Known about the structure:
CATH superfamily of the largest domain: Band 7 domain
Shape: elongated
CATH class of the largest domain: Alpha Beta
Order of helices and strands: EEEHEEHEEHHHE
Strand content: 35-45%
Mean pLDDT: 91
Low-confidence stretches: none
Distance between the termini: 47 Å
Number of helices: 5
Radius of gyration: 21 Å
Largest sheet: 8 strands, mixed
CATH architecture of the largest domain: 2-Layer Sandwich
Amino acid sequence: MATKTVTSWKSKKVYQLLAPENFDGQGIGETVASDPGKLMGRTVNISLGELTSERAKNYMNLVFEVHDVKGDKALTRFKRFFIPVGYLRSKVRKRTFKLDYKRELMFGGRGLKLKLMVLSRHKVSQEQVSQIKARIEEVLAEHSGQDMEKFVQQTLFGKLGTDIYKKIKTVCPIMRVEVYGIEVA
């Protein structure tokens, strides 16, 4: 019978996970590993409400990925943001128009997939839909000149959704604009 080698907990070390600098580099959890190299690529899921101490943002989930280890600190970078499907479904009611908009943006050679939805309680014609999409494109073009971290930060705290809402409310009555997904490609 072959002998098994089992890694002991005594050989493992606790590493503190730190949020990126644009989230003030605060601690977002702990993890254990026997080798710092094994931490690379690990992900941690945390709600925006926990990160900012705002209970109103608990439905927004962020995923960070470990990219560097310094001592017992594991540094992370933004990987993904999403809102659960159950929350999105609760916003769409009977006789509500929903427009899903998906786009891939480039920021300094890095790709970013953006998903948003526009809700209206009124009928929306095809001409209005194309006008709404054109105005969304205008707002995204205005925001594309900044760096990716700033864009993500503004999107998470509602600035992008507000800017889009202000632009398209003149086309037809809009109830809500919700950015429900960002993923670094």
